[in-house]
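Hi there,

I know you've been waiting on this one. I reran it after we fixed the sequence typo, so this is the corrected version. Both the input and the resulting structure follow.
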Amino acid sequence: MKVLNLYAGIGGNRKLWEDVEVTAVEIDPKIAAIYSDFFPDDKMVVGDAHQYLLDHFKEFDFIWSSPPCPTHSKLRTLMHGQKKNKQEYKFPDMKLYEEIIFLDNWFDGLYCVENVISYYEPLIKPQVLGRHYYWSNFIIRDKDVLSSRIKDNTGYKDLQNKLGFVLDKYDYPDKRKLLRNCVEPNLGALILDCARGNTVIPLTEFVEASIRE
């Protein structure tokens, strides 16, 4: 199975994938180097994931995309409400919805686009698992994996143990953030397994019962 892993980070979603040929795209060279240490057999592209998707989507069977989340996160509105944390106002980055619409209309394979639960009502209804939204053209059926999800206040050492990524040797300013940005490996494996076992379903045909927990 040829997989495109966009905005790859250090590869939390990819950690438990098996029998796949992965091309990963990450814009930060330091993060890309860490990913390549953990997954040396994957092809790593250091560059713009959004443009790479447009240029290469036809080459893959499954596409996972995790666009940057800060402009969508509920944390943005919380920080605006605290006088001590003056944060620059920003428009929500619509590349998230550009990719969802593009994949649903032009990609013949299976896809999953992941992002945090937003401070606004999502413009396209997602499936909701834990603290994240997932847009896909297949149903993610088994949600039992969520019982062990990581809490927001989990410390760096506990995150390393939970996720299975030891980052002590790497020179990176915020290693806890790298871990917090990971999709939990067991959830990444579950979603790929669901993709392999599902028939493609147009995004617009999801029934309401399948959208919310």
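Quick highlight: The helical segments are 29-38, 49-56, 74-80, 95-106, 156-163, 175-180, 185-197.

Best,
R. S.
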